[in-house]
Amino acid sequence: MKIALITDQHLGVRNDNLVLHDYFEKFYSECFFPYIDEHNIDTIITLGDIFDRRKFINFDTLSRARSYWFDEVEKRKIESHYILGNHDVYFKSTNRINSPDLLLQDYNLIVHEHPTEIDFGSTKVLMLPWINNENYESSLKAVENSNASVVMAHLELQGFEMYRGAMNEHGLSHKTFSKFDYVFTGHFHHKSTKDNVHYLGAPYEMTWSDYNDPRGFHIFDTETSELTFVQNPFTIFNKVFYDDTDVNDQELLSTDFSYIKNSYVKVVVKNKDNPYLFDLFIDRLNSYDPNNLQVVEDNLNLQIEDESDIIDEAEDTVTIINKYIGNLSLDNPKKMEQLFFDLYTEALSVE
Question: What is the model's pTM?
Answer without folding.
Answer: 0.86
